[in-house]
Design goal:
By secondary structure, this protein is mainly alpha-helical. The protein has helices spanning about 10-35, 55-70, 85-110, 125-155, 160-170, 170-200, 210-225, 230-250, 250-275. Keywords: Hydrolase, Membrane, Protease, Transmembrane, Transmembrane helix.
């Protein structure tokens, strides 16, 4: 996705609104910091019980696009619009991976809902967690786009995105299928893999305030999007912010909501640019 640009009054108004909301959120963060608090309160929990075998899923997600590109001798894949059948296949495969990972992990050690980032039975926190994730996304936008813009312009990278041409030629059904995968399926799968399984396991060996588990999960998360233009730049930075949210909350919902909103905004902008 390209950095936002005021190509029309409507787009400029949307960018201004998002930027204003981000400034308000950062003002709140600064106030909390001045009072000795953190941006997000840390929630006490136990360390996850699983071992290194649980990180197979995030490693698989990272390796698949890299191996695909290497086997084809390509720097970037030739994107094509997805249809309903593609969306259904990917959705089923991803849900199957999640179910299998939970089954394998739970069969070797005692686990609880909280280990997988889920609230306790009867705890009504999903909406609150979702709102927290959406607020974190809005706060992260200037940072993510700022770093991406500096890198793309500083290194004079090609600012085109391989998905724009595919979206321009896609039918309404194909666009809806792509939106479903980008906004619902991918955030759920990737946050479960990279934050719950991988970062949760890495945090077993780190101090509570350590950053290296966040950096590791964010780096692999970015590599998993290799071949999608300059997307790994933005997603690497964004992955750090999501990692911080997960470290503080140990909840899956804020991370999924944050990722879903980011992908939704990105997809909407891509549709706008593709015409």
């Amino acid at each position: 996705m390209d950095p936002p640009a005021a190509e029309s009054p409507a787009l400029a108004a949307i960018v201004l609104l998002l930027f204003s909301m981000s400034l308000l959120l950062w003002a709140g963060v600064l106030v909390r910091g001045a009072r000795g608090g953190s941006a997000i309160d840390w929630r006490r929990r136990r360390r996850v019980p699983w071992g290194p075998a649980a990180v197979g899923l995030p490693l698989l997600l990272t390796a698949m696009p890299l191996l695909t590109l290497a086997s084809r001798g390509e720097v970037a894949p030739d994107p094509r619009p997805v249809d309903i059948a593609d969306a259904a296949t990917v959705t089923g495969a991803y849900l199957g991976f999640i179910f299998l990972a939970v089954l394998v992990v739970s069969s070797h050690q005692t686990t609880s809902r909280s280990d997988f980032g889920m609230p306790a039975v009867g705890e009504r926190s999903l909406l609150r967690d979702a709102l927290l994730g959406m607020a974190a996304c809005l706060a992260a936008l200037p940072l993510v786009y700022g770093v991406q813009g500096l890198v793309v312009n500083g290194l004079e990278l090609d600012a085109s995105h391989p998905m724009l041409e595919a979206l321009a030629a896609a039918s309404l059904t194909q666009k809806l299928s792509a939106a479903w995968l980008a906004v619902v399926v991918a955030p759920l799968m990737e946050e479960f893999a990279y934050r719950v399984l991988l970062q949760g396991w890495l945090e077993r060996f780190a101090r509570r305030t350590a950053w290296w588990p966040l950096i590791t999960s964010a780096a692999l998360f970015a590599l998993a999007h290799q071949g999608q233009g300059y997307a790994p730049i933005a997603l690497g930075v964004f992955g750090l912010v999501i990692g911080y949210v997960y470290r503080q909350t140990h909840r899956l919902m804020p991370c999924v909501a944050m990722h879903a909103l980011f992908n939704g905004l990105s997809f909407g902008l891509a549709l706008w640019m593709a015409g």
